[in-house]
Design goal:
- This protein is of the alpha/beta class and 330 residues long.
- It contains twelve helices and ten strands.
- It has two domains: 3-55 and 164-329, 3-Layer(aba) Sandwich (Rossmann fold), CATH 3.40.50; 58-162, Rossmann fold (3-Layer(aba) Sandwich).
- The strands form two sheets. A six-stranded mixed β-sheet has the order 1-2-10-7-8-9. Strands 5-4-3-6 form a four-stranded parallel β-sheet, with helices on both faces.
- It binds pyridoxal-5'-phosphate (PLP).
- Pyridoxal-5'-phosphate is lined by residues 56-57, 86-87, 161, 163, 194-201, 294-295, 322-324.
Length: 330
């Protein structure tokens, strides 16, 4: 595999400039201090602070995905998620900015009074369809897309979480952004982040491999078993091959993929004692806000790893904040 050529291809992928520049990499001094003298250096990659559509990891992915949609002449973005999906809100935001229509298929009940992401979806002018289960989302998206095509429209289907190889490529690129802003000759020992549909983790894992970083990327599950996330991450990495003109299967085989499902607690979106602790500690030490569905559980994992002595004091851990703070207002 020619990593230099693959990185060059990665850099050339067309992107919509939904946000310009880079997100901050903040040193979490007070959080480190609060966790005790043996705590490693903690740097926080602030994708929560992406200044577009309330930010988060989905905005990065959508920069590339929306560029492909436009190149294909799409007039509508169509996607799926839960009623409070960050991904649906980011997709509706991208559609609004690009002058496209947006159709969302949500599993759950229409909220009597839309709040948080559901409120933003409505403000953004997205057309919502409700189904009663997760399983009905993808077939409903296909059916609605077919119907739209019959009406002469050009829909672009964005799969769950925009976790396609193209969406993941945005995070492989973001590793280059991280490297450029690391202080001195610091190489992170680990990147810890929230993981669900696998695209963020696939991109970060592939990006570290292509850049020759020894960094362990650890995805903390919001819901699914670690084994299914790991399989999905490898599948997405393999899918990067064609796009990057490299052997995707070799890339997927050669990386270390690590998901952890020990912090899900009672389930998706349900707060746990550890996520409550992480949430209040992050707010009180760093004015950093994490949500119970994704990022508080990922931070709870990082805190547990520190307490278990998994890291040394002289190591550096990046907590990649993937957003989701709108979820605080449900
Ligand atoms: C805030 C937040 N963090 C993390 C994730 C997980 O990202 P991915 O779906 O790429 O695994 C999501 C996706 O739903 C999210 O909304």
């Amino acid at each position: 595999m020619n990593a230099t050529a693959a990185l060059a291809r990665l850099g050339e992928l067309p992107a919509e400039p939904l946000f310009a520049g880079v997100t901050a990499l903040d040193e979490a001094h007070r959080l480190r201090e609060a966790l005790g003298p043996a705590t490693p250096r903690i740097l926080v990659k602030r994708d929560d602070a992406i200044p577009f559509g309330f930010g988060g990891n989905k905005v990065r992915k959508l920069c590339l995905v929306a560029a492909e949609a436009r190149a294909r002449g799409a007039d509508t973005l169509i996607t799926v998620g839960g009623v409070q999906s960050n991904h649906m809100r980011a997709t509706a935001s991208a559609a609004a900015r690009l002058g496209l229509r947006c159709v969302l298929i949500a599993n759950g009940e229409p909220p009597a009074t839309p709040r948080a992401n559901a409120l933003l979806d409505a403000l953004l002018g997205a057309e919502l369809h409700y189904v009663s289960s997760r399983e009905e989302r993808a077939p409903t998206m296909r059916r609605l897309a077919t119907q739209l095509r019959k009406e002469g429209r050009v829909p672009y289907e964005v799969p769950l979480g925009a976790s396609t190889p193209l969406g993941a490529a945005a995070f492989a690129r973001a590793v280059g952004e991280l490297i450029a802003q690391l202080p001195g000759d610091v190489v992170p020992d680990a990147i810890v982040h929230a993981s669900s549909s696998g695209g963020t983790q696939a991109g970060l894992t592939a990006g570290c491999a292509l850049n020759g970083l020894p960094t362990r990327v650890v995805g903390i599950s919001a819901d699914d078993p670690a084994s299914s996330i790991e399989a999905e991450v490898r599948r997405i990495i393999a899918g990067l091959g064609t796009m990057l003109e490299t052997d995707g299967d070799a890339l997927a085989r050669g990386v270390h993929v690590s998901a952890n499902d020990s912090f899900v607690g009672e389930g998706y979106g349900v707060a746990s004692p550890a996520s409550w602790e992480a949430q209040s500690l992050a707010a009180r030490t760093e004015a950093l806000f994490v949500d119970h569905t994704y990022t508080a559980k990922a931070l709870a994992a990082l805190i547990a790893f520190v307490r278990d002595g998994r890291y040394r004091k002289d190591q550096t851990i990046v907590f990649w904040h993937t957003g989701g703070q709108v979820g605080l207002f449900t």
